[in-house]
Amino acid sequence: MTANQIALIQSASDAALVERLFVLAQDGEFNAEEFAVIDNEVYGRFARAYGQSLEDMDPASMMAA
C-alpha cells in the first residue's frame, strides 16, 4: 500500500473501517495487506479508547493478530 492509501485509512471514520473489514472478511481477503492495515488501525483506536497502547493489548484477544 502507498503512504497515501495508509493516510486515507488512518483518517477514515470508525464505521467506514469496520465496514471495510467486514467486506474484506466476507470476500475471504484475510491475507490482503489492506486487511492488515485496517485491522491494525481499528485495534489501535480501540486500545487508545481504553487508555492503552496497541502493544499493551493481549494479542489473543485480537481477531486477526
Key features of this structure:
globular; mainly alpha; 65 residues; single chain
Number of separate structural domains: 1
Give the CA-CA distance, first to last residue: 19 Å
Strand content: under 5%
The assigned structural class equals mainly alpha
Count up the helices: 3
Low-confidence stretches: none
The main sheet comes to: none
State Rg: 12 Å
Cα shape: globular
The overall strand count is: 0
**Strand-and-helix sequence, N→C?**
HHH
Query: Percent helix among the residues?
Result: 55-70%
> Mean pLDDT across all residues, rounded?
88
Concise structural overview:
The chain has 65 residues and is mainly alpha-helical. It has one domain (3-61). 60% of the residues lie in helices and 0% in strands.
What does this 3D model show about the protein?
The chain is an all-alpha fold and 65 residues long. It has one domain (3-61). Helix content is 60%, strand content 0%. The chain is built from three helices and no strands. It has helices at 3-11, 14-26, 33-49. Helix 2 (14-26) packs antiparallel against helix 3. It is globular, with a radius of gyration of 12 Å. The model has no long low-confidence stretch (mean pLDDT 88).
Please describe the topology of this protein.
Elements: H1 3-11, H2 14-26, H3 33-49
